[in-house]
Amino acid sequence: MAQSEQLIYSYELLGLPPGTGLEEAHRVYLEQLDIWNPNAIDEEANPPLYQQVKLRRQAIDEAHRSIVEYHEQSEGAGSVAAAEPGLDPAAIAAEAPDAAISAPAQPDMNDTQPGVGWVGGATTEVLDSSPISPEAVAQVPAAAQRPSTFVQSEGQMLPEDGQQVYEDRLPGNSRVVRSYGDALPDGNEATQSSPVFQLLRWDKPAGRIILMIPALWAAFLASGAAAPSWKILLIIVLGSIATSAAGCAVNDLWDQEFDSQVARTQNRPLAAGRMSRQSAIIVLVICCLVSIVLALQLNGISIQLCVAAGIVILLYPGAKRVFPVPQLVLAIAWGFAVLIGWAAVTGALSFTTFLLWLATVLWTLGFDTVYAMADQEDDRRIGLKSSALFFADKTPDVVGLFFAGTAIFMLFVGINQGLSWQFWLSLVLATLGWLQQHRSLSKSQLRPTTRLYSDIFTQNVWLGLLLLAGMILGRPFA
Fold this sequence. Notes:
Number of strands: 4
CATH topology of the largest domain: Tetracycline Repressor, domain 2
Strand content: under 5%
Radius of gyration: 25 Å
Oligomer: single chain
Distance between the termini: 76 Å
Strand order of the largest sheet: 1-2
Number of helices: 19
Shape: globular
């Protein structure tokens, strides 16, 4: 009965009838994250309010996890309601009246325990028990203030309708405002794609293309006046797709528990319970086998570099737990695309190869640090590390330095390779693009949006393709 009571509490916390299906529970969970979003509160200006919203967010995360675990355990056992007779709400209410649903007209925002958090039927430590002032209440997102029917469980009250909070209804002093609309990035949008496609991110081609770009840079530059063979280009394209797919699967297997607690990643198939770990492992093995077969078509030094790259890719998810700048590990993994692409064409590496490698590493550090900025509050809460957290308020300037370094090393690459005006034009345009990105990040310090971070990532895909076009057209023969 205790397990049933805990499950009832989880459903109540989300404002759902006990036994509601996993898909509907997950939809409501995402809506509640928009309402109880600590990123929408200025922590320094209103510590009590921030703690209240933060702990309610943690309670909602725990409730969602409990429901997902229940459905995983009940999979294949028939209907959810029939899977465990104890889920009958009336029976639970009779035996555990304290868990019954009540519906006050509106929440008491001046409760003397604003920070109480619900976790598995118990309360967490009250971090700040001072009453919340009317001025602080005025800064709560509109949906959380709106008089409505609320569901109460263990001191937690949530709006029953779960209406989303959009940017124009959030307080003006928000530090991070979600502005995804209906297309949340990186696995958090409503999609009809299969779980396998979502696991491998094949429904998001930008992330696959941006890994392919450095390898193509290397292949075309290493070929000089001649074009690389179609076989090399085909292996690079297919290898990039297979390798990035394997990297995504590894990352999700490592981070399944954490992904369910991060707004950007909570709808990934493993985190949301739409795919089992066994299925994900099978998909990973297939991707690795395809990558190995493709690598074996290359020369000896390229094969050795592929093995080294595979080791770094496998270790990257673990770096987020122990290394303060895990994006550097990812950037090094990305840099192997340059080394492999160059060696595949020439059978050796040169000084220009390492200039291009350095440019790629700095470029990746730049755009992936921006990407990490969307997760910094969630990463801080669950104990993961990132370059965005490490550089803190200096992150926009550090990203600017990374992009400046990319431009400088690209300059040396162009000089060493004797590239013509087409490349120099593309480099000037790319540098202007990076400068504008730095300015956008700097201006948005007081009110950044996850849409900005996602847009900068996408812009870098186009800037990378622009540079690729400049390299192809600017080769000596052109």
